[in-house]
Amino acid sequence: MFKQNLLATIAVFITWTIIDFLAHGRLLMETYQATAHLWRPEDQMNPLLMSAVTLIYSFCFVALYQYFVNPKSLSTGIKFGALFGLASGVMAGFGSYVYMPISLFLAESWFAIHLIELTVAGVIAGYLVKGSNA
Question: Residue 73 is part of which domain span?
Fold first, then answer.
């Protein structure tokens, strides 16, 4: 069970890192540049801390799936990830929109990114993490 969780955590971490790079580092770069006054300058960002946060979030996602989702299957992984993504996306996207002067486009983008990332994480967890009897 430990090996399954470790492998799933690493796979989720790598997947989220790639999606974040593509979404935030490429697709949304123009939007971030247009709202540069809202963000830290690049030289003040902490990539090591960003990676640590992503790794901890990956671990927590996999652990929640392992300990609280039954039966474990690809189907339940997708459902878990999509529901988690819906909740996380609403909070990250539209929750931020309520308090920050970001565009609706950026809020919708953050919502979609979270929904996609967590649904994909559900696929990974559903595929790699099996019950303790498996």
Answer: 2-36+48-128
